[in-house]
Amino acid sequence: MRMSEGKNVIKNNSEILFIYEAKLTNPNGDPDDENRPRMDPKTKRNLVSDVRLKRYFRDYVISKEGESKVWVTKIEGKNVDATERLSKIGTAEGVLKNCIDARLFGATIPVKGQKGGRGESTSYTGPVQFTWGYSLHRVDMVDSRSITSLFSGRDTGYGNIGKDYRIYYSMIAFHGAVSAKRAEITGATEDDLKKLDEYLWNSLVTETVTRSKLGQRPLLYLRVEYSSPEAMKGDLRRFVSVKENSENVRDFSDLKVDTSALLSLVKSKDVVKVHVKCSEEFADFCEEVKKTGKGSQ
Predict the structure, then answer these.
(1) pLDDT band at 92, cuts 50/70/90?
(2) Is there a contact between 39 and 45 (Cβ–Cβ < 8 Å)?
(3) Which end of the chain is more exposed for a tag (fewer CB within 10 A), N or C?
(4) DSSP assignment, residue 237?
(5) What do you get for the CA distance between the two ends of the chain, in Å?
(6) Cα separations (Å) of 36 from 33, 128, 212, 237, 295?
(7) Are 237 and 173 contacting, i.e. CB atoms less than 8 angstroms apart?
């Protein structure tokens, strides 16, 4: 079944590089390890799952457009299974038509069995896929972990001691890829990709305003469109060089970031269009992209 129709279909394959910073926060806790920030103990690189990144995106969509526009979510604040979620939407076609996350990331949609028989499911592989993110440098955990909460009782207050794991500073980078061929199946459009470009950036501003996530900020978002699927370069993080100026990285200023190889990629004949957003730290890179005439911000 092909869902994509009209002139708004995705024409070119793309690759994505998304870099953001996390300061004195927990970018992605591991529930199997007391919610400690995910780390590679050998390299001291901070890790963030693709599920966490897509959750930011989905939460932002909900805040802007409502729960009905997202497949993987809650209903009225409660966790529900896929069958119950489908009952609110109607059909598998309705899921793809109404839910931007299903069109972009894919979905597993339940199908009821005949005459009370066992049901099955239909799975769609989304055109947009992300790897796990990781820091482009070594990351240190905050030394102090214990926190104390004080509650007032009828006669006296009482305290509760817990753990609060955080990192000092992490510049996290994600790589993603967009398949125009898979977009034909789910119905993902150019308008959906424009929202992805905008909403991922905005979500790191608005959806991180919680106690454990506050302290994160987007730095660079780049999506490059290629002249052919064969022109795709692979993980774009390898085109960014980051060196540590300090033994203990605590801020962006403790890093030296070189994007010259990334700029050369943008200028190559294989790249037909570039969608880019930059913080002030990467403003020079954005200016250079503008000069190529390929940029769209």
Answers:
(1) confident
(2) yes
(3) N
(4) G
(5) 34
(6) 6, 28, 11, 25, 39
(7) yes
Letter string b/e over residues 196-232, b meaning 16 or more CB atoms within 10 A of that residue's CB: bbebbbbbbeebbeeebbebbebbbbbbbbbeeeebb
- Which is it for strands 36-37 and 29-30: parallel, antiparallel or unpaired? antiparallel
Structure tokens at 208: 């991180």
How far apart CA 291 and CA 170 sit, in angstroms, is: 30
Backbone angles phi, psi at 182, to 5 degrees: -70, -30
Q: What is the rounded CA–CA span in Å between residue 221 and residue 18?
A: 5
DSSP secondary structure code for residue 31 in this structure: G
Tokens (6 digits) for 77: 């604040």
DSSP assignment of 51-120: HHHHHHHHHHHHHHH-GGG-SSS-BTTB---HHHHHHHH-SHHHHHHH-HHHHHHEEEEEEPPGGG---E
Helix, strand and coil in the chain, % to nearest 5: 35, 35, 35
Q: Buried b / exposed e across 97-125, counting CB within 10 Å, b at 16+?
A: ebbbbbbbbbbebbeeeeeeeeeeeeebe
Which residue is associated with the tokens 């489908």?
A: 86
- Residue 110: the pLDDT is 77
Render pLDDT for 14-55 as a digit per residue (tens, 0 to 9).
Answer: 999 999 999 999 999 999 999 999 999 999 999 999 999 999
